[in-house]
Write a structure and sequence with these properties.
The complex is a heterodimer of chains A (287) and B (266). Chain A is mainly alpha-helical. Chain A has 11 helices and no strands. Chain A has 2 domains: 55 residues; 200 residues, MetI-like fold. Helix content of chain A is 79%, strand content 0%. Chain A is elongated and about 90 Å long. Chain A starts with a helix and ends in a 5-residue tail after the last helix. In chain B, 35% of the residues lie in helices and 24% in strands. Chain B has 8 helices and 9 strands. The longest helix of chain B is centred in the C-terminal third of the chain and has 18 residues. Chain B is globular. The chains are: A mainly alpha (287), B alpha/beta (266). Chains A and B meet through helix 8 and helix 9 of A and strand 5 and helix 3 of B. Chain A: This is ABC transporter permease. Chain A: It is found in: Cell membrane. Chain A: Keywords: Cell membrane, Membrane, Transmembrane, Transmembrane helix, Transport. Chain A: It is a multi-pass membrane protein.
Chain lengths: 287, 266
Amino acid sequence: MRFVLPVFAVLLAIVVLWYGAAVKMNSVWTYDQAARAELEVSFAEVLADTMVQERPVLPAPHQVALGLWQGLFGQKVTSKRSLVYHGWVTLSATLVGFGIGTGLGILLAVGIVHNRAMDMSVMPWAIASQTIPILAIAPMVIVVLASVGITGLLPKAVISAYLSFFPVVVGMVKGLRSPDGMQLDLLRTYNAGRWATFWKLRLPASMPYLFASLKVSMAASLVGAIVGELPAGATAGLGARLLSGSYYGQTIQIWAALFTAAILAAGLVIVIGVIERAALKRMGMAR
Amino acid sequence: MRDSIGQSAPVIEAKGLGLTFQTGDGPVHALKDVDLTIGKGEFVSFIGPSGCGKTTFLRCIAALEHPTEGTLTVNGMAPDAARRARAYGYVFQAAGLYPWRTIAGNVKLPLEIMGYSRADQETRVRNVLSLVDLDGFGKKFPWQLSGGMQQRASIARALAFDADILLMDEPFGALDEIVRDRLNEELLKLWARTEKTIGFVTHSIPEAVYLSTKIVVMSPRPGRITDVIESTLPRERPLDIRDSKEFIEIAHRVREGLRAGHGDEA
């Protein structure tokens, strides 16, 4: 429990700074309104007003917390205003994309490690793929897939997979190559084939690397799914929530959606962490 | 072949063996003109300074390196064929146990790869673990064992299948002297019980003299054999044999051989 105090201190500092910034930024509007109405406002009045504006430049933490609370628990989960509903739409695309991306990443890594031609050719393309801004490619994926009749979850999952396969490729190539010369020589003395070398040595040796990659790739999947919801003018999902929030200047809604995404990402990474610990413990690799 | 111990066809035979690595700085002669015959049931040590090719020679026998000159046969076959026939067990400098497998699981590894039946695997694991004095440690993971115990487990792994050659590359090099003495003593008992032919690389003179029936002294640049000493010590060797006159004489001859190989630098 030693870490509680530092974490709490940092959190407190963030909240204090946030309140300060909210007062400063939102007071501009308050002063403008007062000037227009030709009224004098005291600092106390300004302070009070900056905390309760409907469309603040920077919503105060308690406004975001309230928005988040109402979004998550204030309505039926099937409601269009429920963040649970939107969160689930995004989560489902994230998970499908994560599955596709991880599977593809592992397959590519296996190919790269076992095939010289793939070793030379795939990695540069994989790296190049990640240098293209996802915002540029996402609309094209949606349009192309829509033209062949694929809409809804799958296009978002594809964008999500596009972001998430990369960390898995990099991590798994490193992991599958982690056994040293002596360990490979040992298997040669048993006259073990590639298949046995893969299952008995390379794959188990790569597990710690895989889990490290999965955490990065899970976060990337979520970003991909949210970005995938932006260009299509989607009506559901955290991305759609962000977009409509920015159309109508609903800053509280934007921040609530952002926090939902952050909570979702943290939850997913924690789940992977738990699976990692259980798996490595079973494999005797956890100390 | 079992009934004709000693004078039978050699287990390992090298004639004019050479291995040259082509490097950026020109060729490196790791081995040159190596002639050696190892008979069945012998315990042969290879001793010499680093770079003398002792490990390289062992790796040639194991078909992990391929000689560029001369001939080498293992059990009458080319080394590669012998490797495919799983003619030898190899013990490396480090135990190299898989951290994700238990001790029993590690010993089982070659058996799984070679397709032994489940029941056979279990019996063999139990037998070799008791052979190296690790009964009851099968369910432990490697990190729960000391370095010496890990190395014993790796020897068990090399003994688990029916290879009658055991190749050991400085297996006790990383262990402290006390553990090393114990393991040397145990290795001799194990050799007596299993009647295997053992090739043992070391850079310790007492270790070589204590263990071997034949000591091959090597020297570097190019890697070559400078002396082959047939030990006159009895097969039964308590640790205190190392204080006997005979032992000291053999050790002296080994030291002379090593010095002769270094004549140009001394």
